[in-house]
Amino acid sequence: MTTTLRQDFSDFCAQRDAQNTIQLNVTKWCYMLCDALLKNYIDYSIASHKRSVYKEVNVDYHQACIEDLKNGQCGYEFTVESGRKYHKIMMSANGSRSVHAFVDKKIGEVYKPASIKSPAKGVRYDLRLIKDREWLLENADWAGSYLYAR
What we know:
5-stranded antiparallel sheet, elongated
């Protein structure tokens, strides 16, 4: 009887460690997504200002904006806020905040937001799947178009 209890407890501990590892990885991947979104916004803004420079419209202003963006001064910020069930990927700009995406804390499923408090139905991506995670980190855009049903 005691060997069975020890084995059950050992299995429970191993399962708990695996769950904790997944949850830590999900949090890490959320921060990686925030970094990818910020990089995408900076690249998008630089390209936009370069088009204006090419059209010779307020060249000095746009050159200064490009330099600021290259130095990381963009006015946008992506952060992770943890709730009871979800991590919220929050987008902040000019004093306003909005939810960019929801990520299930336990299993890493990514959802499009339905409101500031809840996700839309239907999983968009699963961060545990390497293929989904790599695609997401390479193709996520700051405006959120990647979150629409595919």
